Amino acid sequence: xxxxxxxxxxxxxxxxxxxxxxxxxxxxxxxxxxxxxxxxxxxxxxxxxxxxxxxxxxxxxxxxxxxxxxxxxxxxxxxxxxxxxxxxxxxxxxxxxxxxxxxxxxxxxxxxxxxxxxxxxxxxxxxxxxxxxxxxxxxxxxxxxxxxxxxxxxxxxxxxxxxxxxxxxxxxx
Length: 173
Description:
There is one protein chain. The protein is mainly alpha-helical. The chain has 8 helices and no strands. The chain has helices at 2-24, 27-49, 55-64, 67-84, 86-96, 101-115, 131-151, 160-172. α5 runs antiparallel to α7. The longest helix has 23 residues, at 2-24. The protein is elongated and about 120 Å long.
């Protein structure tokens, strides 16, 4: 009877405990390993950031903070540019339409990285400028150029007929 109790109490249950420990591990050992790992991470952090900050550290930290404000104010500047000088803005946008699509995807990836956003859209299409867009932009540029020339009374205008009219007007006075 003693051998049966030894088998059930010691060997059989002890063997089951060894199997369970080998499969799931010992909780105390896991906690100790997690604690040691956390302490090692804190040690690495202290080694990297625990020293006295120099002017170089401050400069690099400042430079790391610049991309987001530059991109934000750059977009706002585009809106201001569109209002202040529409022909030049339109010409620049037409030239940007000629940029290959792969470069746009690279730019979008960089912006997504800096702003931490998700991928913008899978079906982004960049429409190249049409002939009508270019013609309308050229007409607008000519209109703005002539308007500026008309206000400047010191220089003759570029239109040949107006230049002749100015020549006759100045000769008669």
